[in-house]
Amino acid sequence: MKTIKQLTLEAIDLLKNLISTPSFSGEEHHTALLIEAWFTHNNIPYKRENNNVWAYNKYFDESKPNLLLNSHQDTVFPNKEYTHNPFEAIEKDGKIFGLGSNDAGGCLVSLLAVFTYFYSHKDLKYNLIMVASAEEENSGAKGLNSVLKHLPTLACAIIGEPT
To answer: How much of the chain, in percent, has pLDDT values that exceed 70?
Structure first.
């Protein structure tokens, strides 16, 4: 099992790659591939519909309540007032800047790291379901709402959304 430090470093690398990959609402194909690569690298089976990518913890048990971990991978168009290349991940003073770094790349990679850390735990009191959703910024029809029909009943959710 990977350590929290290893997962943190990998999540930071993923965030940098997400920033450098344009992912406007409805155009998240390439970021969805990055998320698939995260799951593949960590030996986690996943499902995908449109640009939504999701996975269940290894010891999923239908008798347990289900906790959804969700954040989105799409971004809005860059503001014309940007002073740097919005598709370049810039590290400064312990922070990462770039389009989508805050809304919601940081949330997304954090939840992916948490999910990955707990993925193989046998003794969880609940199931974890991780959804990296699409089309949040434009409330698109192919976003999280289109995936919910594939998921079991949810007891609660943690949504990574800084706004």
So the answer is: 100
CA distance 158 to 9: 22
CATH code 3.40.630.10 for 4-79+88-160: yes
| Nearby residues of 64 by Cβ (< 8 Å), 6 or more positions away | 124, 125, 126, 127
Q: Which residues contact 5 (CB under 8 A, 6 or more apart)?
A: none
Neighbours of 66 (CB within 10 A): 20
pLDDT tens for each residue of 80-92: 888 889 999 999 9
Domain ranges of the chain: 4-79+88-160
